[in-house]
Amino acid sequence: SIIRAAVYIQASLRQFLVEDAVQILEIRPPVPSPPVAVAVFFARRLQQPLSGWALEEEAMGVAAVICGRDRGLTLGPISKAYDVYSVKLPPGHPVPEMLRERFREVAVEAEEELLNRLQDIEIPSQGYACFREFCQEWGAPEKPIDGKPILERASAVISGLKPAMEEKLSQSLETCQTMAGF
User: What do you get for the CA distance between the two ends of the chain, in Å?
Assistant: First the structure.
């Protein structure tokens, strides 16, 4: 998605630069619209796979964009980039290492946000629903890229809701007066 955005921006800029010529000369130069430029770029790329040096350059560019973002970064793009480049680049390449480090940093931020969301939740089923929604929203992978578990504290908070809910339920059962109340 980062490459698509870069190609789209380049095509938009080319189209913007050509607009003056269109107005002055009243001719339409052969500059495709940005969506068409993106489609052509990816069609060419699918026909000709990247060579080794181009792949390394692309990986470094993608890692620089991902690692340079301060806000709005979720776990999904990092794990997808890692999945793509960790198998294609030689062992010991710095890009997978950079992506693993950034994944850990973002995982800490994600867990803090999830813990904030779980503060007002009292029922375990609501906690699990919030957890699933959060994982989908943040693109949290089933298996972390570095093998270390993520969102452990949040899982512990949700598990901690069970005994409190069981105790609350037991207390309410003691006050039931009829069979229908059970």
Answer: 54
In a domain, 141, yes or no: no
From residue 50, give the alpha-carbon distance in Å to each of 45, 62, 88, 109: 7, 14, 11, 34
Domain count, the chain: 1
pLDDT tens for residues 106-165? 999 999 999 999 998 888 888 899 999 999 999 999 888 888 888 889 888 888 888 877
Q: Could you identify the residue written with the tokens 């298996």?
A: 143
Query: Are the beta carbons of 123 and 163 closer than 8 angstroms?
Result: no
Flag whether 8 is in a domain: yes
pLDDT at 21: 63
3-state secondary structure the chain: CHHHHHHHHHHHHHHHHHHHHHHHHCCCCCCCCHHHHHHHHHHHHHHCCCCHHHHHHHHHHHHHHHHHCCCCCCHHHHHHHHHHHHHHCCCCCHHHHHHHHHHHHHHHHHHHHHHHHHCCCCCHHHHHHHHHHHHHHHCCCCCCCCCCCCCHHHHHHHHHHHHHHHHHHHHHHHCCCCCCCC
Rounded to whole angstroms, how far apart are CA atoms 77 and 45? 20
- The letter for the amino acid at 152 is E
Q: How far is C-alpha 182 from the chain's CA centre? A: 45
Q: Which domain holds residue 25?
A: 1-48
